[in-house]
Amino acid sequence: MKSTLQSLLLVFAAVLSSFAQRELGVRPTNTGGPLMFEQAVFDVHSYDLTLKVDPKTKSISGKSVMTAKIVIPTNVIVLDLDEPYTVERIAEPYGLDTAMRDLKWQRRAGQLWIWFRMTKQVNDEITIETTYSGVPRVAPKPPWIGGFMWEKTPSGADWISVALQNDGADLLFPCKDHPSDKPAMATMHITVPDPLIATGPGKFEGVKKNSDGTSTYNWRMTNPIANYSIVFNAAPYKIVQDKYKSIDGTMMPIYFYVLPEDESKAAGLIVEQKKYLAYYEKYLGPYPFRSQKVGIVETPHLGMEHSTDIAYGNKFKSDADGTDGLLLHEFGHEYWANLVTASDWRDFWIHEGFQSYMDSLYQEHLHGKEAYFKSMQGRVKGLRNKQAVAPREPKIAYQVYMSEPDYLNSDGDIYGKGSLVLHALRYLIGDDAFFRALHRMAYPTKAMEKLTDGRQERLVNTDDFLTIAEEESKMDLDWFFELYLRQPKLPKLVVQEGSCQTPMTGGGTTKCFILFRWETPNGMQFPMPIDVVVDGKSQRVEMKDGKGQVEYRQSKPVVDPNGWVLKTQ
Fold first, then answer.
1. 1 has pLDDT over 90
2. Is 341-485 in the same CATH topology as 35-143+157-236?
3. pTM, to two decimals
4. CA 296, CA 312: separation in Å to the nearest integer?
5. What would the pLDDT profile of 355-397 be if each residue is shown by its tens digit?
6. % helix / strand / coil in the chain, to the nearest 5?
7. Which CATH superfamily is domain 245-337 in?
8. What dotted CATH number matches 341-485?
9. CATH T-level assignment (fold) for domain 35-143+157-236
10. Is the Cβ–Cβ distance between 47 and 187 less than 8 Å?
11. Element (H, E) at 233
């Protein structure tokens, strides 16, 4: 009965999300959520995309080749493909040569149901070739509501971009549209009109000039990659190059694909990029994709963490330190999203909460603890506490990033609250254990950290970080994760004036007491300590069973002056 009820609730939530998108004039494009059997039966190894892009008609045509391994015997699989596309053919290799034979298939809304002639067995390798074309969905609010962008540069040249995170990679190509399956390799062959240059993930493998005034740009990513990072951008880019020596000694290329109008600004941003590389490597270990490239590409939308080809549209804005907050954040997702990937959208705070924490930690890195505290305190103002940061039930993307009824203005607290949870955890377990845990979440073993090709496939959930934090701190942390991440409400610290005692004989100092007590949702366990400044000195008050007290003799104690503990204000 419980599982049935949970399923009904998931369906209801999906209906709400669909309704909200219809109100915006956008057809639902759900990505993630419960994985259907016909997709659970196979594990994707690679995607190979051949795309011809026509900015005049705002259309694409091409071929997608997916290779995968069968993990459960089946005679049918399902791929996702957005409805605007027309499918001409679906085929598989036949015999010992390169001939292809048609497969039986059926279009069901945004899905392709594909039948094999015989049941495929465990460990069978399959190759599915799909020929398709059409006018893809235009992004109404990129990058948050995604699709294609057919824009113009300041000089009037074509400028094409794609953003897919919340809507799914099926807006570009047929795929298994679920975060739990990262292909080990992705190849893109992108044909665009001259003089456009097309960028993609991984290494550049050359360009072919065609006789019809177009060129085909070839890219190959040989590290595991999230589906929504398999995208391209095209413009008459100038390529500004540099290099950086990783903490492990690897010399890595840096490429900035920048509009001609902004070429003079590129070198300055690369200088900043190198600072961010040093910062992330200090705390988290070597840059994960050092066998590929450090890539930045100027885009008409604000930005996105496309692996090895970070989308950058911040118009070279920086703060007084010269820090470009957009690039700092998106590049950090090379660790928290592209290296360490949540296996379901319910755990996407591991992407956005962890990275938002790294954004604030950068202030400490530059300016010390007071700047860090100020940054973290600024995050408290935006808390909504309307849904759990890391619910246990599967979620689609829009249920995490955006929630009803305030559909476009809610991030589900996965950014700010997620980072404040890490802030409180740092206080609870101490710096040494906390930063070891953070590093281990990125690289669980030294062997993984030393892989120069970055071939670890990190699909994780919240319990993985709980285990790591407990092992590093030697503490039981279930209660901490349950209250802060599995339900939305915050604890409340009740402060009560206690009695005062004056010595019977004159000349002594009056002693007073203040009592502390945690009030929690449904009486949840919460033995969270608290800092209290007593008579000018800070002390940590342990709260065993959720209660504690302090004695003072002069001024009234100041509770949690640095804002370490996340609580109702």
1. no
2. no
3. 0.92
4. 7
5. 999 999 999 999 999 999 999 999 998 899 999 999 999 888 8
6. 30, 35, 40
7. Neutral Protease Domain 2 (1.10.390.10)
8. 1.10.390.10
9. Immunoglobulin-like (2.60.40)
10. yes
11. strand 233-235
